[in-house]
Structures are given as structure tokens and as C-alpha cells.
Design brief:
Layout (H helix, E strand, L loop, with lengths): L1 H22 L2 H8 L2 E5 L8 E2 L5 E2 L1 H14 L5 E5 L5 H7 L4 E2 L7 H4 L4 E3 L4 E3 L1 E6 L15 E6 L4 H11 L4 E6 L2 H9 L5 E5 H10 L6 E3 L7 E3 L2 E3 L3 H20 L6 H7 L3 H6 L22 H9 L2 H8 L29
Parallel strand pairs: 1-4, 1-5, 9-10, 9-11
Antiparallel strand pairs: 2-3, 6-14, 7-13, 8-11, 8-12
């Protein structure tokens, strides 16, 4: 009985130690360093791209800024690490970056055996193909690519998706892969391959950078599901909760009509309980809602993210939507109430 009691006590102590380790993780590191280390692409218009002065813009970039605003109160407290598709998971696993926000597809193997955890779906996408319509005027559909050479980036889901689709359609093809996306695009423009394949959002972004954009046709078919979202390491639930609920806060903010322009006024004047909870408004007894504190943040976490970066709709519009050169329709990325898939649990 005594041995059993000792065993139980040791087990309880181990549980406490594990819980403590999970709490004293990335969130504390970010506070200590004073910035969020964010892994991004090497340059994909609309998602993460630097200008000549190394100022980064894009949906994935804005999401990291929203995290910084929520945790540190300042959306500028972010350092960006450009990563290839091959490098991105190792950088996260090793602790080189705090969060990976790099047009990365949520798959089962990545979410389990790689020791990673996806915190949401920032963009619902699907894989497509682009061809030069001047050189290949007869190609109007993916099924017209029988025997074609296709360029793509290595270390991504695109290779397997191409193999699955062409096998199911009984089509022959040749794959030409490159570690860097710019190399794949250059090979496509040089005529080394007949088509280039990646997520359809990426096709529209790359098309704008090509020598003669109008000569290039994005084919109509979508051959895969590509839910793109931010990723953190497994075993750090405190940080996972922060990243996940920053994403949910941005989606809830759009649904509630909270924007970067009105969030301060809404905090003062709104009587909507959902808005009051999200913005940490004090109740009649002077106590705040407590949701930020429950994550190890202050009660202004969501307000800071919304005010400094905007709600989900604002982020989408200026980076890939109608306020951007890409002018991509919301489609599946509209709110659930508008026929899309963007949906966040309530703050309660």
C-alpha cells in the first residue's frame, strides 16, 4: 500500500512538472525576447512577400502581426524568417521559429507524425494548373495535359496531388521539381515544362509576376483540398491556445462588425454581450470577462489585434481580395453566414 501511495505521488508530481513545462513555453519565450519569430515564404504575393526595404506584407504576415499585438501589445514586434517548403517544418520543430505562417496545407501526417499542430484555416484553397495559352492554345482543361511536363516545388503536397489526379484520370505526365518556387516559375517561363502547378491562389499571384501575364491561363479544375493555416509545435498547449484564439478572434470580429476603425468606439458603447466578452469589457461588478487572463494574456488582447491589424475580412481584402492586385473573390473564405466556411467558436 505504501509503495502504491509513493507511486501515485510520483505520478502526480510528474504531471505537475509536465503541466509546468507546457505553461512555461513559447509564450514566455516570446515575452522574454520581445518579439514573435514568424516563419513565412520566400515571397508569395498576397501571403508573404518583402519589398525592396524588406517590409513584409500578406495574409500570413498580418496573422503574425495579430499574434504580436495580442501578446505584446504591438503588431510591429515580429521578425520574419523566409523558409523554403523543405526547411519550414524543421525550423518549427527545432524552435528556430515560434509559429509557421507560410501557406501550409493541413494534412493528417503533418498534424500527427511530424509533431506539429495546426491552429486554424486562414485560407481555403485548392491545387490548380497554369499554362501559356500562346504556346498551348489547345489546352483548356487539366485533362488536356496528357504527356505534359509539369513544374512544381518539391517538399509540398502538390507532387502527391498531381500523382493521384493523373493516375485516377489515366494520364501520363512528367514531373520537374525545384526546391525554390522561383526556380520552378523560371523553368515554366523558359519553356522547360508545359504547365506549372501549385495552390490556385498562388497561381494568380505568380501570374501577375510573369513577363506577359495575359498569355498565361489558369485552368478551371481544382484537384485537391488545400486548407492553409498557421502551425505550432505539439506539446505547448498554452501557445497553441493563443495562436488558435487570435485566429478565432479575427473571424468573430468580422462577424460582429468590429473593424480596425471602430473597435475602440464599440468597446465603449456596445451593449452586445458577445462584443463585450471578446473585447474584455468590465462587467457591472467591475470584473473583466477573464478570457484573456485564462490564456495568460491581458483583457485587451483581441482589441489590440483587431485595432492594429484588422478583422479577418479586412486582412483578406487588402492582401488577396478586391483591395489587392489579385482581386480574388471570398468564395469558400467568406463567413459561414455568407455561404463560406470561415466559422469561429463563440467567446464564452
Amino acid at each position: 500500500m505504501k509503495n502504491k501511495l509513493i507511486t501515485l505521488m510520483l505520478g502526480a508530481a510528474a504531471s505537475v512538472a509536465i503541466a509546468g513545462a507546457a505553461t512555461a513555453g513559447t509564450l514566455d519565450d516570446v515575452r522574454q525576447h520581445g518579439f514573435v519569430q514568424c516563419g513565412v515564404s520566400q515571397g508569395l504575393m498576397g501571403f508573404s512577400v518583402p519589398d525592396a526595404q524588406n517590409n513584409w506584407t500578406g495574409m500570413d504576415v498580418d496573422f503574425c502581426r495579430a499574434i504580436a499585438a495580442a501578446v505584446l501589445g504591438d503588431a510591429t514586434k515580429v521578425k520574419f524568417t523566409p523558409l523554403t517548403a523543405k526547411e519550414r517544418f524543421t525550423a518549427l520543430q527545432s524552435g528556430e521559429i515560434d509559429v509557421l505562417s507560410r501557406n501550409t496545407t493541413w494534412t493528417m501526417s503533418r498534424d500527427t507524425s511530424l509533431g506539429l499542430k495546426f491552429a486554424g484555416i486562414m485560407y481555403y484553397d485548392g491545387q490548380g494548373f497554369i499554362v501559356n495559352s500562346k504556346k498551348h492554345a489547345n489546352v483548356k482543361s487539366v485533362n488536356d495535359l496528357a504527356g505534359a511536363t509539369i513544374c512544381t516545388q518539391s517538399g509540398t503536397t502538390t507532387e502527391l496531388n498531381i500523382a493521384d489526379y493523373f493516375k485516377s484520370q489515366k494520364l501520363d505526365y512528367k514531373l520537374l521539381t525545384f526546391e525554390k518556387n522561383d526556380e520552378a516559375i523560371a523553368a515554366y517561363q523558359d519553356g522547360r515544362c508545359d504547365a506549372y502547378s501549385t495552390d490556385q491562389s498562388g497561381l494568380y499571384a505568380q501570374r501577375l509576376k510573369m513577363q506577359v501575364p495575359d498569355d498565361n491561363l489558369v485552368l478551371p479544375e481544382i484537384i485537391s483540398k488545400e486548407p492553409l493555416g498557421p502551425v505550432v509545435r505539439q506539446g505547448d498547449d498554452a501557445w497553441f491556445n493563443v495562436v488558435k484564439w487570435v485566429y478565432f478572434a479575427l473571424v468573430n470580429a468580422e462577424e460582429l462588425g468590429l473593424t480596425s476603425q471602430n473597435v475602440e468606439d464599440m468597446k465603449k458603447t456596445s451593449t452586445n454581450p458577445e462584443i463585450q466578452r471578446l473585447l474584455g469589457v468590465a462587467s457591472s461588478d467591475g470584473k473583466a470577462a477573464g478570457f484573456g487572463i485564462g490564456m495568460g494574456l491581458d483583457e485587451g488582447w483581441a482589441e489590440a489585434a483587431i485595432k492594429q491589424v484588422g478583422n479577418y475580412g479586412e486582412i483578406f481584402d487588402r492582401n488577396v481580395g478586391q483591395g489587392s492586385p489579385l482581386k480574388i473573390e471570398r468564395g469558400k473564405n467568406a463567413l459561414w453566414k455568407d455561404g463560406g466556411l470561415q466559422y469561429a467558436p463563440p467567446v464564452r
